[in-house]
Amino acid sequence: MADSPREGRLARYPDFTQLTDMASESVGGKVLFATDDFFAPAENLIKSDSPSFREHEYTEFGKWMDGWETRRKRIPGHDWCVVKLGIQGVIRGFDVDISYFMGDYAPRMSIQAANLEEDKQPAIPQRGVRTGAAATPEEFEAVAELKSDDWNYLVPMTELKPGKPASSHNYFPVNSQQRWSHVRLNIFPDGGIARLRVYGTGQKDWTATDPKEPFDLVAIAHGGACVGYSNAHFGHPNNMIGVGKAKSMADGWETARRLDRPPVLECDENGILLVAGCEWAVFRLAHPGVITQIEIDTTHFKGNSPDSCKLDGCILTTQDEEDMIKQKWELLGQKWKPLLPVTKLSANKSHLFDSLTLELQDVITHARLTISPDGGVSRLRLKGFPSSICLLRPREKPMMRFSVKAGFRANL
Fold it and tell me: Do the beta carbons of residue 345 and residue 278 sit within 8 Å?
């Protein structure tokens, strides 16, 4: 995820890059098919790390490249590949990264997408080691059942623009509210692409949820999203609601050290630090519901975890949310209801708490995590039960406002 753009400056990164890469191998993304993988396999497209370059390294087939690179085509047609998204949902934008492919990047590309039912997908042969190979007739026959030629175009044929050798991104916003499960990347006619990032939010089929089992209502894979925060100096709050366990500190939310801390720290009778400042992040739940269990995980944050935290919830309509974003979440205190009182945290540990709403049974649409005075949290899980009450109307166009600046602070 990239830093949010500052006002008065040309945005280096679009807002949608703060969302999850739904195609990444780290969330279960998978390459199903590629017409050709001669110089480098299509699996490199969905690596979670940034592309790299090894100047003097070669394979038996040619220059080692960290991306997908096909041979120079000498037959009719063009190259393409199919990726099954690890998180199925609404796509907000693409990053087609051609870093290090300065002399052999694909000059043009397009992207198509489809939403395929899990039980109706054909069996496609496992790819195995692909370098030096092209798709077999059997693989072409199997992938033809996907009918990917007919998939919707989210990005029409477009020329790719090289930038700096080590950072050459081509961004494409998407204005669609539809749910997608697969994408097809077409390159014209051949060449190399370092990474394909598919940014968006998950979309859950709530009718298939077991009503007796608590469900993580804030998970980004199900449609949860951070809609405001006070500080994200080292990591965006959306990381906290990501897929699986955090892999490192980089996979969590971490703020800068607050400069208004007292010169000498003191604690109250409960061992809570006496500090005036705090940091916070507000989340829109994937579905309105009742939170019954809270997990706050500080794994990997061994010398920089928060001293304490609290969690509050409220009900907001879409208009309320839009107004609060404009007001930088200066929401009147009485709208927030406590889900977890001020609670001491430990470093590098997963904490499980029962929500106060076990007795109150309050439905909420938004949750606010407040940490004191600062620090990092790797994961936030809010388990509970979805409610039939839904105050958030379907959006006519993508809501992509991350207007709270990384350096903005407020004490809520």
Answer: no
Per DSSP, the three-state class of 200 is strand
Domain 15-202, second-level architecture: Sandwich (2.60)
Here the tokens at position 350 are 């997963």
Q: How far apart are CA 258 and CA 144, in angstroms?
A: 57
> What pLDDT does residue 334 have?
63
Q: Amino acid letter at 146?
A: L
CB neighbours of residue 106 within 10 Å: 24
**What is the distance between the alpha carbons of residues 337 and 291, in angstroms, rounded to a whole number?**
12
| Range(s) of the chain covered by CATH 2.60.120.260 | 15-202, 215-389
| CA atoms of 288 and 393, how far apart (whole Å) | 12
Q: How far apart are CA 385 and CA 374, in angstroms?
A: 30
Q: Is the dihedral angle over the CA atoms 23, 26, 30, 31 positive or is it negative?
A: positive
Q: 185: which strand partners?
A: 81, 111
Q: Measured between alpha carbons, how far is 26 from 87 in angstroms, rounded to an integer? A: 10
Phi and psi torsions of 149, nearest 5°: -60, -25
Instruction: Give SS3 for 220.
Output: helix
Q: Which CATH number fits domain 215-389: 3.40.50.1100, 2.60.120.260, 3.65.10.10, 3.30.70.141?
A: 2.60.120.260
Strand 179-188 and strand 253-254: pairing? unpaired
**Quick one: which H or E segment has residue 58?**
strand 58-59
Question: What's at 402, amino acid-wise?
Answer: F
CA dist 357 and 349 (Å) reads: 24
Whether residue 378 contacts residue 249, with contact meaning beta carbons closer than 8 Å, is answered with yes
H or E stretch covering 221: none
Q: Closest Cα to residue 290, out of 214, 393, 348?
A: 214
First vs last C-alpha separation in the chain: 26
Q: Is the pLDDT of residue 109 over 80?
A: yes
**Token match 């991350």: residue?**
402
For 127-185, how does the pLDDT look when each residue is reduced to its tens digit (9 = 90+)?
988 899 999 999 999 999 999 999 999 999 999 999 888 889 999 999 999 999 999 99
